[in-house]
Amino acid sequence: MVCLSDPLVQKICSLYEKISKLDNLSPSKDADALFTELVKTCIPPHPVDVTKLCAEIQLIRTNLIKLCGTAEGLMESHYSTILGSFENPLDHLHLFPYYSNYLKLSRLEFDLLRPHCSSAAPRLIAFIGSGPLPLTSIVLATHHLKTTTFHNYDIDASANAEASMLVGADPDLSGRMEFITQDIMEVSGAALKQYDVVFLAALVGMEIEEKMHVVEHLAKNMAPGAILMLRSAHGARAFLYPVVEPRQLRGFEVMSVFHPTDDVINSVVVARRCPKVDQVVGGGGGFGHMVVCSKCSEIQPFNPLCQMNLIDDLAVELDHL
Fold first, then answer.
1. pLDDT surpasses 80 at 262
2. What does pTM read for this prediction?
3. Could you give the CA distance from residue 320 to residue 290 in angstroms, rounded to a whole number?
4. Which of 81, 249, 292, 296 is at a distance of 20 to 30 A from 34, taking alpha carbons?
5. What is the pLDDT of residues 166-191, one digit of tens each?
6. Using an 8 Å Cβ cutoff, are 273 and 255 in contact?
7. Rounded CA separation 262/40 (Å)
8. At the top level of its lineage, which domain of life is listed (predicted)?
9. CB 235 within 8 A of CB 48
10. Which helix (H) or strand (E) holds 127?
11. Which residues have C-beta within 8 Å of that of residue 317, sequence separation ≥ 6?
12. What is the pLDDT of residues 32-41, one digit of tens each?
């Protein structure tokens, strides 16, 4: 068990103590400085395996992910309000401090997605957990998927209202983007089957059990062959975001797993909904048992390095399968 003997873990725990004592997680000099230091601490490659952390550090990691998620939502709302004050908000996206990261991440996800699309571009994409500043949808729609329609789902009506304001002045994007206030667990199979691709934001389901309930709902209701794009985390970055292991994606054939080593924080998992997925209700609670096709436990690695130079390293997780 890894506990406080690791200097990296010690520093992260020290930052957690300081962050947890903040009166407010909204953007401020103190909050910005602490979260910036935390991100810089977690970015460099480190061999830490979060599954082997002791119970005390596991709890700290869980709480830290929740704090980061809350702070991220407040920061996005803060900058969405600023951007919404301009006549043409999309002309000022660079004001968001992490805009360049979204440009890189969206390009990465597009390059990972492209080989698995049956047509030149998906017709309809769902983004689950789009928030008040839906930069992934905006960047993909503007730079990479210029004919695709995006349905952005968020449970928070105020977040959708802020997001809608950002694209309202753009005649193209406002016609290709819809913002839907609904819990994804309440979205019907008929609705989910219409999507060629579903993006699941990293902070939808900050507890792994909650995230797996969402994945199970998608496995039961997405169209066979549709693509699921998930964001995960690797190494010390797992103190910032939840980790999704390929073996947990029952009902999906995992196509590729990509772990960035630059300032793009999130790992990306690309999976295809299996042709046949039947739900067998198990006893005693939990997720039940998924009867899945034979390819659900396979990984077919895809290396986009020949097409892009954004990411320095490709690592496909096979050891837990």
1. yes
2. 0.85
3. 19
4. 81
5. 999 999 999 999 999 999 999 999 99
6. no
7. 11
8. Eukaryota
9. yes
10. strand 124-128
11. 234, 245, 246, 257, 299
12. 999 999 999 9
- Going by the DSSP 8-state scheme, the letter that residue 56 receives in this structure is H
Q: Which token pair is 144?
A: 């990479």
Q: How confident is the model at residue 50 (pLDDT cuts 50, 70, 90)?
A: confident
In the chain, the amino acid numbered 195 is Y
Q: What is the bridge-based pairing of β-strands 149-154 and 177-181?
A: parallel
| Token pair belonging to 229 | 């794009």
The token pair at 153 is 């789902």
Tell me the C-alpha distance between 229 and 268, whole Å: 7
Is residue 127 classed exposed, middle or buried when 0-12, 13-18 and 19+ CB atoms within 10 A define those classes?
buried
Decide if 144 contacts 229 (C-beta within 8 A).
Answer: no
pLDDT at 164 over 50: yes
- b vs e for 218-255, b when ≥16 Cβ sit within 10 Å of the residue's Cβ? bbebbeeebbbbbbbbbbbbbbbbbbbebebbbbbbbb
**Helices 55-84 + 157-167 axis angle, to 10:** 40
The residue extents of the domains of the chain are: 7-91, 102-306
In this predicted structure, what is the pLDDT of residue 320?
A: 37
pLDDT tens string 6-29 = 899 999 999 999 999 999 999 999
- Report d(CA 105, CA 92) in Å as an integer: 19
Q: Read off the tokens for 205.
A: 């389901």
Strand partners, 281: none
Cβ atoms within 10 A of the Cβ of 131, count? Answer: 23
What are the angstrom distances between the C-alpha of 228 and each of 2, 72, 84, 108? 33, 23, 30, 15
Class of domain 102-306: alpha beta
Q: What is the pLDDT of residue 253?
A: 94
pLDDT at residue 272 tops 90 = yes
61 is written with which tokens?
A: 């990691």
State residue 160 phi and psi, 5-degree precision.
Answer: -65, -35
